[in-house]
């Protein structure tokens, strides 16, 4: 339906719930807690409040609802170092700063080597130490960019554990990539124009590592075996990613998001049939692509793929956004990062409308009640009768039908990448989105501030 600006503002005013304290997340946590996968987004990779509110949600999902791990938009090798640290595994670094230092040479370093992530990591380690069964919550990377580092990690572990036969397979795969000098684009050009690919080698390595773990799932260090397998998965899919990158941006995007979804699926299977995951990624990955103009370009993303794989009722996606403030980003890929001003949202955009409808406050908007966790009854109602699950659902915050219809319109929704030019916002920083279809809920920060890097001198801030 056609919708006027004032209709949207009025609907937001009716539905927006203030966000000031952790307790203001109660209804949102309850709505999300029935999902197998909770997806927590961000409108940029450099905004402090996005990380801090995701941390609050993550803590509660883990402590109150037993979520098993966090999977992030980061590379497997450095994230696995964090996983070892929070679980006090063999070979883990002693200090959180040393653990996060593995991100320093990986642009954009500020994305994970920051004070906000350090606080989360320290909390995870403390939480895990208190678990009686010794099975704490994990921290894993889902991304595809670590081809050479993943291959090296595989060979290092196979050599240390004396797995000679598998080591030879890994060396064969690594030697195929070696002539390309750790340059993915160079490999892609060679693969496309000279048909010199390493596909067979990495597929064979992944298959052998997967077969080994499936033959003896409880033997030895299960997490180390999982790490070898996921590193091999990175190698296989990164090889495809760099090949498709030369031909098509949309195809390489799909390879990347399909990889992240496959990595998530393997992590869920590793943690057992009842496993539940929390995903931290940019809005462009966790918000269903079918509710944006990405679909017209033939692009898919994690948000769409997990809904298709596990059922929409088993996924809960929370988008984030801001009206104005500051952010850390770079002016080009690999450039020194800096603190940049985020200008006021473009008039008529989703962020502009929420700013107006919320009265300039931080708020939560819920488009879906989610799926109730568990079965049975809840606390008694006002008449002293136990509340059934379906009754409890009716108390959850979610739009009335007329307001939901308003939110099913298409709005321009801001997305800031690691490369950002504030002065060019009108030409590429807004994604047409059906908000109530793209997300199940939305957290709005009226005025946000930049992340706090652990080593600001290394990012030029």
Automatic annotation (TrEMBL):
This is Erythromycin esterase family protein. Gene3D superfamilies: EreA-like (biosynthetic domain) (3.40.1660.10), EreA-like, domain 2 (3.30.1870.10). SUPFAM superfamilies: EreA/ChaN-like (SSF159501). CDD domains: Ere-like. It holds the Pfam family Erythro_esteras. It comes from the Bacteria.
């Amino acid at each position: 339906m056609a919708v006027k600006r004032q209709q949207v503002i009025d609907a937001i005013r009716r539905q927006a719930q203030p966000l000031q304290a952790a307790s203001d997340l109660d209804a949102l946590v309850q709505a999300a807690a029935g999902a197998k996968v909770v997806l927590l987004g961000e409108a940029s990779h450099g905004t402090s409040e996005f990380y801090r509110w995701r941390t609050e949600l993550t803590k509660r999902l883990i402590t109150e609802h037993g979520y098993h791990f966090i999977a992030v938009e980061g590379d497997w090798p450095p994230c696995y170092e964090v996983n070892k640290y929070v679980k006090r595994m063999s070979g883990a670094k002693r200090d959180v700063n040393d653990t996060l230092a593995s991100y320093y040479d990986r642009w954009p370093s500020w994305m994970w080597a920051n004070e906000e992530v350090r606080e989360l990591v320290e909390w995870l380690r403390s939480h895990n130490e208190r678990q009686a069964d010794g099975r704490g919550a994990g921290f894993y990377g889902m991304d595809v960019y670590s081809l050479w580092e993943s291959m090296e990690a595989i060979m290092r572990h196979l050599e240390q554990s004396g797995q000679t036969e598998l080591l030879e397979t890994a060396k064969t795969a690594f030697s195929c990539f070696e002539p390309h000098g750790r340059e993915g684009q160079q490999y892609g050009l060679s693969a496309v124009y000279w048909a010199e690919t390493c596909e067979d080698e990495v597929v064979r390595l992944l298959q052998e590592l997967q077969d080994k773990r499936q033959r003896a799932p409880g033997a030895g260090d299960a997490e180390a075996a999982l790490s070898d397998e996921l590193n091999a998965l990175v190698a296989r899919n990164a090889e495809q990613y760099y090949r498709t990158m030369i031909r098509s941006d949309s195809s390489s995007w799909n390879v990347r998001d399909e990889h992240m979804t496959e990595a998530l699926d393997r992590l869920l299977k590793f943690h057992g049939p009842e496993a539940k995951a929390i995903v931290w990624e940019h809005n462009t990955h966790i918000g269903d692509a079918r509710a944006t103009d990405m679909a017209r370009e033939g692009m898919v993303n994690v948000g769409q793929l997990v809904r298709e794989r596990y059922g929409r009722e088993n996924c809960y996606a929370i988008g984030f956004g801001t009206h104005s403030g500051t952010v850390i980003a770079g002016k080009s890929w690999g450039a020194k990062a800096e603190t940049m001003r985020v200008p006021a949202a473009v008039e008529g955009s989703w962020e502009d409308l929420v700013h107006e409808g919320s009265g300039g406050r931080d708020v939560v908007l819920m488009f879906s009640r989610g799926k109730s966790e568990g079965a049975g009854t809840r606390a008694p109602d006002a008449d002293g009768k136990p509340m059934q699950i379906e009754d409890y659902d009716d108390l959850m915050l979610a739009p009335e039908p007329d307001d939901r219809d308003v939110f099913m319109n298409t709005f321009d929704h801001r997305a800031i990448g690691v490369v950002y030019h504030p002065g060019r916002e009108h030409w590429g920083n807004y994604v047409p989105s059906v908000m109530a279809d793209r997300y199940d809920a939305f957290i709005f920060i009226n005025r946000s501030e930049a992340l706090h890097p652990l080593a600001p001198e290394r990012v030029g801030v």
